[in-house]
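Tutorial handout. Part one gives the primary structure; part two gives the three-dimensional structure as tokens.
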Amino acid sequence: MRLAPGSRAALRHAWLFPDDRRDFNQNGNIMSIACGIDFGTSNSAVGVSRNGRARLLALQEDATSVPTALFFSLEDDTRSHGREAMKRYLSQEPGRLMRSIKSLLGTSLWSETTQVKHRRYAFADIVADYLRFLRTAGGSQLDAELDSVVLGRPVFFVDDDAEADRAAQDQLTAAAHAAGFKSVELQLEPIAAALHYETSVAAEEIALVADIGGGTSDFSIVRVSPELAGKTDRRGDVLGTSGVHIGGTDFDRLLSMTTLMPFLGLRSKLKREGMEAPSWYFADLATWHRVNFLYDQKVIAEIKTVRRDSAEPAKIERLLRVLDKRLGHELLGRIETAKIAIGEEKMAPLSLSGVAQGLALRVERGRFERAIAECLDSIEGRIGEVIRQAGIEAGDIRTVFMTGGSCGVPAVRDAIVRGVPEARVVAGDAFGSVATGLALEAERRFGGR
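Part two.
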């Protein structure tokens, strides 16, 4: 790709990399560039780095973080990604929204297909399509080709199943190649966040990096310093890593099951004594990547039979209204908004617009924290595990660096801090720290390529 001297593209490239001329050859053609991609459960970001200075790329509407979402239109057979996908879905355009597609990695769903209108799409192709969107959107900001990538990966894609975890890593790598990347490498997401944090330290220290994302909570204990930042091989500075497949989407699911789903019929009685409405409808409706399975006409017909047999048919009718209007993802979005709100307040309203006009439920922080108590115990347990793995005492950790969209949940922060009560807490860019660290790693691994 040739850039004319003084052109807008050349000026943009110079702004991104002001002191680097290695990216142009003698004919003014721009070289291909390596990048780091944080492919997240809820949000994704792309970063690039030159001379140890990393930047996140604006992907849509000047935003460096975009929802991990695809929208398949039933009107014109087009598909959109990220913010545009959410915008089209929330405008009530007929179509199919897919979110939390990262959660498909390592599961039996990976090799399956899903139907949109008259066409079936393989889930593997859907993930590759979203990564292709990130590659194209990032490259357009540089007027360059992003051909090499370091992708972030959680410590565990799948808990307590090494074979499924390896399969998930292989699936992600294959999807990235299918998206057009020639060279694909991976780095643990909490290590990437540590590389970002290291750019701000003035002296050597031991830090606990907590990355609380949409699908996983990952922890690393890392030795960081300005002198160590230039090393290519940092394996000796990683003292311990651990993680658990718990994140923001789990908090959304548990909050939904506690507050919203009983209103739609969860645990509602059937006419036959001792029987309740099947719980799996509600579990799927509360899970981002499973919502679409409920829109199948066979499932809806089955729920109509449940309504006929229900001792509380008005509740099942609300469930059917949600499915008829395809409000599943929108309601989960409202749950997510309420979850964020009770991080600051003790109570937040949950609108039931489209389900029961003029009504709202109350979401209470205390009830939410009780709902996620088991998750909090798991997170706290992993903190102790990674400290033992590192062979140090909790008091040796000077800083806790928190990142990820779910690190803003007060109860989650408290669970982490309880394990290292003497450490100071530093909050990173919730949606950018991992991508920034991956960009630094990409420069180290691929150089100026």
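Part three, for discussion. Residues 1-28 have pLDDT under 50 and may be disordered. The longest helix spans residues 123-142.
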